[in-house]
Design goal:
single chain, about 425 residues, alpha/beta, Rossmann fold, about 5% strand
Amino acid sequence: MAGDAPGVFLHIGAMKTGTKYLQNLMEANADSLADAGYLFPVDGGWGEQVLATREVLHMTGDPRVRRRAEGSWQRLVDRMRNYDGNASVVSMEFLSFARRPGIERIMSSLEGVDTHIVLTVRDATRVIPAQWQTSVRNGHTEAWRDFAEQVMAGPESESDGYKVFRRAQDVESILERWLQFVPADHVHVVTVPPSSAPRTLLWERFASVLGVDPAACAKPPPTNNESIGQASAGLVRLVNLELGDITVSERSTVKTELANRILAMRVSEEPRARTSRALREFAAHANQQSRDAIASTGVDLVGDLGDLPVVAAHPPDEGPDELRMPTNDEYLEAAAFAIPHLHAVVDKRARRLRKKAVAVDDVLDRLPPPTETKPSRWADAADPLDAAVKELTAVVRVAIDLQQRIYALQDGKPIATG
């Protein structure tokens, strides 16, 4: 389906629609894709696409991110313009957030380039719990029940939960904005298959849009977007409340280390966030709106609208119609698991800094003792959960401070101590 070379395919998301799977797969197979005539620019890792997207969309509030991102979009565009293969592929779900000024900057930079837009869409019943989890990893503090109720309340509520849902999953709005700049036959909507389908089917559909043989990405990705259980996500939420406002670069310790690497190891031991009957009905209605938008715009559909069910499924053995919340014991189990693993992160970062003769003792003096951690250790506290969260947060703060010194070292900046 690719146009005349050289072309560019912008995979704009949406969020929680298999984007990380596709990104990891293409990064793992970048050399094979290049052999097939497709550039997936990841010489510095997929993060260079993230930085470029942040820059062009003016999402660089963190000073360190802003410094690193400077000029990155133009460098990416120059590389794609100079590529002599079939096409280049950029995949970054933040592009689904783009409003008219951002899209204008993107399309102006690609003037004269055969540019295609790829939007992946997924059953909202699966998306909404995943969005809550992602929002928590990124610093939000809504509990699952509150988030779900905010989503269902709709635009009249002006709530953060609904804004998170609409910002990334309003297919009608996303298509409307991009179709002002890209013709419908250059906009491709790929539906995410149901969980019962082979995992590779999503890639096969995506590859058909690019016009590349799916076999070009035969190597499995090293990691996927690790999911975490409801108690672990809720624990991260409580840590967010303790931390308060922190920068994007500081957030990486919470998101990457605590959530994606440590608590993800518990995913098979914890229940996922459960949906209620009301939430499933809401999701079915959202799916119908997505279907209508796709059908009415004349864009290229790859997949099946049946992947967006418009009749909510209700389990025959469904219990009370409520959004279950974890117990304190479940939170304590997750905290007890996380703390020693996070101590190991602290040790690793401290060793790295000491090798560079950077002082770390002033930071490590704030570290709670790395004793064997069991949920019972907080039993005598007036509020065991509060004690556990405060201890975990103290370790997180130490890990963040050490990482900030590593960043300063990398950036050649003075390292503040004391």
